[in-house]
Amino acid sequence: MAGARSHGDDAGRTRRTGRAVSHALQRPVKGTARRIRRATHAHGAGESGLGKLIELHAVNGAGDVLITVALASTVFFSVPTDEARGRVALYLAVTMAPFTLLAPVIGPLLDRLPHGRRAAMAAAMLTRAVLAVMMSTAVATGGIQLYPAALGVLVASKAYGVVRSAVVPRLLPPTFSLVKANSRVTLAGLLATGAAAPLGAGLHVIGPQWPLYGACAVFLGGTWLALSMPHKVDSAKGERRARLSTHEERSPRPSLRTLSRSVLCGLWANAAMRGLSGFLIFFLAFLLREHPLSGQSAAVSLGIVAVSAGVGNACGTAVGAWLRARAPEVIVAAVLSLTLAAAVLAAAFFSGIFMAVLGATAGFCQALAKLSLDAMIQRDIPEQVRTSAFARSETLLQMAWVVGGGIGISLPLNGVVGMSVAAAIVAAGTTMALRGALTTPRHPGPGPRPRLA
User: Of 178, 247, 202, nearest to 65 (Cα)?
Assistant: First the structure.
């Protein structure tokens, strides 16, 4: 009897010890989750449903960066520079070129599914989860089958981005402006990207396919989050479709061109900034691999410039959420002029420091320019077509990124030439931004005025 009682006491102590250890291990995870939930659901975002979209976009950013790590290690870092350039050119031809044809279709297609936005976001997540598993079999060898799957990932990612832009107006808390909501969503994606990048690098050490396994798990979680969004996400009450342009001067259907010249100028200015982003990514990737920063390896050199751009983008998004301004056209013109000055200096005094400065400046100014464009759309586009306008404008910006990347891959690896081309891209956007700022009435009529927060 005594032996049985002793055995029972030992088993009880073991169970209690196991529960204590389990609680100790879960406490930091649950505490972190609670703090994240409080941050994403603050100021009414939880009640309106915006908090769930913020979390979904963070998951989206984490999954995308894990796939990027896997592709970069296969297409870029694992082979000599000349071969890597050929592989990236093939990547552009097989993925980006078809995407330029598919991108104009994404917005109108999703525009016809106003009652299925949750399903569309979930489908974009699930598609990438499946494609990540398919890519895991080819990522080690870099076989040709990798590229069609990468195209599918790209299209699904951009489709998610378009739908997400269309969803934000439906989830605004009472005290939020549209721009402040967009800045919170974007900032969450940037923070998740920064946190997932080292995780992807660590998974790659285990094996080249492991970042893709991680991406699959992340996107499966994103599928569940998308389906759990509030039902009002699928509401399309009072909406109509918007067009980027029209040949009918007296068309009864509004378009971005007929409604506001400032919106159109801001859109083209943002397209120049997005094109600059694509250009710098591809051009500097090869330039710094062939000519790394003084005393640094190619990977470290790329990391320095990438971190500079990421920090700049995050700071721009944070400033946009804090700044209260009543002239978004002026802000677009100012940030593009600042970027142009940085690009001219980088071309005139080419060095690693100026490349990092240009990357940080471009990231900071791109974030503020996009938030200012959001403010203009919020002010000038009627609510009935605002959702569609966000979808169409985002598609155009993604196409600009593709064009910029194509220019970057085609140039010789000469820093001065590359920075001069970058300055020319920004100069074109600055011209449009200044035109928008100069042609906007200084004293608009009564009614709500745009703010960056």
Answer: 202
Length in residues, the chain: 453
DSSP string, 223-242: HHHHHTS-GGGG--TT----
Per-residue pLDDT reduced to its tens digit, 247-302: 444 444 545 445 578 888 999 999 999 999 989 988 888 888 777 777 677 677 77
Interatomic CA distance for residues 140 and 25, integer angstroms: 35
In our burial notation (b when 16+ CB lie closer than 10 A, e otherwise), range 44-82 reads ebbebbbbbbbbbbbbbbbbbbbbbbbbbbbbbeeeeee
Mean pLDDT for the stretch of residues 138-152: 74
pLDDT of residue 100: 64
CA dist 119 → 112, 114, 115, 163, 275 (Å): 13, 10, 9, 10, 30
How wide is the angle at C-alpha 316 spanned by C-alphas 315 and 321, nearest 5°? 95
From residue 93, alpha-carbon distances to 7, 37, 96 in Å are: 69, 41, 6
Identify which of 222, 224, 220, 233 has the alpha carbon closest to the alpha carbon of residue 118. 233
- C-alpha to C-alpha distance for 319 and 303, rounded to whole angstroms: 24
CB 366 within 8 A of CB 316: yes
Alpha-helical runs (H) found in 77-209? 81-91, 97-111, 117-136, 146-167, 178-206
User: Which residue from 144, 164, 131 is spatially nearest to 390, judged by alpha carbons?
Assistant: 164
Distances (CA, A) of 303 to 109, 197, 274, 426: 37, 11, 20, 24
